[in-house]
Design goal:
Radius of gyration: 19 Å
Number of strands: 19
Helix content: 10-25%
CATH architecture of the largest domain: 2-Layer Sandwich
Shape: globular
CATH class of the largest domain: Alpha Beta
Order of helices and strands: HEEHEEEEEEEEHEEHEEEEEHHEE
Strand content: 25-35%
Length: 308
């Protein structure tokens, strides 16, 4: 069983530690806690800032603010406010968690909460993949506060460094106090650099990290698949079925991660107009609470598309 199934693999260091603060240290400030189901389609529980006491872990924060049951001698989250893992419509469902848009590689009781962290638990179908390594729905994280309490350098790799899309992404980050370097795709970079790849498809096809974008969620956790060497992509539902094929003016904003490297975001489109549409949508109003987003002239489509 993969430790990335963080909702399943929230190994506790004892239920007392999980339910109580870890110690007398100062409580982390400006923490956000979001609990949803169906890839963010429905919010569960209360609004407002969560109760935070002392040096919290992700598990202790959850148990302080929601009713949580566990299984396997307290080793796994079974339910939050009565919504349990198991089977729905014949498919496996469970709880997974993300900190600043990054799916954790270890259990929730072993993950400290740092100031400004956005903690997100989501209950969803994992029949297509148990690994969605990064999501866009905690924006402006991870750019603002980083990963595991460490703010990381940001690099925007642009097909056209002087183009509208590149300039727009840079200005949106500058507006929230995040400086970014700008370069052409493919330049050497460190494993601890947050990367945003900006360009039209298929011009950026084959560039890391989009080399797997033709393969669907099992490859990268993204419920969309581009057509090889063609300016179109399919958007998928939670069962991996094609719901719609987008071409013409269409864009995509998504995130992924390889191993323990920093997450990589992609802002792309089927055409220049589609890329510009995606760049204009690079904001909290569009992204928050969504795993990934497809953009068309009439609005934004959450990915995956969740059926009844």
């Amino acid at each position: 069983m993969s430790l990335r199934r963080a909702g399943l693999g929230s190994l506790l260091c004892g239920l007392c530690l999980a339910g109580c603060g870890l110690g007398p240290g100062a409580a982390p400030s400006a923490v956000q806690l979001l609990v949803t189901r169906d890839f963010g389609a429905r919010r569960l529980g209360r609004e407002g800032a969560p109760k935070v006491v002392g040096q919290e872990t992700v598990m202790s924060l959850l148990m302080r603010n929601y009713t949580v049951t566990t299984r396997f001698a307290g080793g796994f989250v079974q339910s939050i406010d009565g919504l349990a893992g198991g089977q729905e419509a014949g498919e496996p469902v469970d709880w997974f968690y993300y900190v600043n848009g990054v799916q954790a590689l270890k259990g929730a009781a072993d993950t400290d909460v740092h100031p400004g962290d956005h903690v997100w638990w989501d209950h969803h179908d994992w029949s297509q993949t148990e690994d969605v390594p990064a999501v866009v729905g905690s924006f402006p994280e991870p750019f603002l506060n980083g990963v595991e309490g460490k703010r990381l350098p940001v690099r925007i790799e642009c097909e056209s460094v002087s183009g509208y899309a590149c300039r727009t992404i840079d200005s949106r980050l500058t507006a929230i106090g995040v400086p970014a370097a700008i370069a052409a795709p493919g330049a050497p970079e460190g494993a601890d650099t947050l990367t945003i790849l900006v360009g039209t498809w298929p011009r950026i096809e084959g560039d890391n990290p989009v080399h797997s974008f033709t393969e669907g969620p099992r490859a990268d956790g993204i419920y969309a698949a581009f057509t090889p060497r063609a300016p179109s992509f399919r958007i998928l539902d939670q069962n991996g079925r094609t719901v719609r094929t987008l071409s013409g003016t269409a864009g995509l904003i998504a995130a992924t991660r390889q191993g323990e490297e920093a997450p990589a975001w992609v802002v792309t489109g089927t055409s220049e107009a589609g890329l510009d549409l995606a760049a204009r949508s690079f904001d909290a109003a569009t992204l928050q609470g969504r795993f990934a987003v497809a953009l068309i002239p009439s609005g934004a489509l959450s990915l995956p598309q969740v059926g009844p």
